[in-house]
Write a structure and sequence with these properties.
The chain is α+β, with helices and mostly antiparallel strands and 90 residues long. The chain has one domain (19-89). It has 2 helices and 5 strands. The chain has helices at residues 2-15, 43-59; strands at 17-19, 23-24, 30-36, 65-73, 82-89. The longest helix is centred in the middle third of the chain and has 17 residues, at 43-59. It comes from Paraburkholderia solisilvae. This is Lipoprotein.
């Protein structure tokens, strides 16, 4: 029962974020943006959703992900929260 509640809780938090497609920047690095869909999403869930997608992108190329920079925008509960992750695959 506790395991089901944990899985349900994680699913709800994951559903609270939207992640953009990977963009190639002019310097060759990659960028992905993860956004909160509502004010209930925590910064960690937004960041983790973006990192998960970045890792999957690199894994699909049989490479590893290296985060170069992580920038936050917005105020939790007041403004739309978003996190921009700049990364590279090596």
């Amino acid at each position: 029962m506790k395991k089901r509640l944990l899985i349900a809780g994680v699913s709800v938090l994951t559903a609270c974020t939207a992640v953009s497609n990977v963009e190639v920047r002019s310097n060759g690095s990659l960028m992905i943006t993860s956004r909160a869909r509502n004010s209930f999403a925590s910064w960690n869930s937004i960041r983790n959703a973006g990192l998960k997608h970045a890792n999957a992108y690199c894994r699909d190329q049989n490479k590893r992900m290296h985060a170069i920079a992580v920038h936050t925008n917005g105020v939790r509960g007041v403004d739309n929260e978003s996190i921009e992750i700049t990364f590279e695959c090596f």
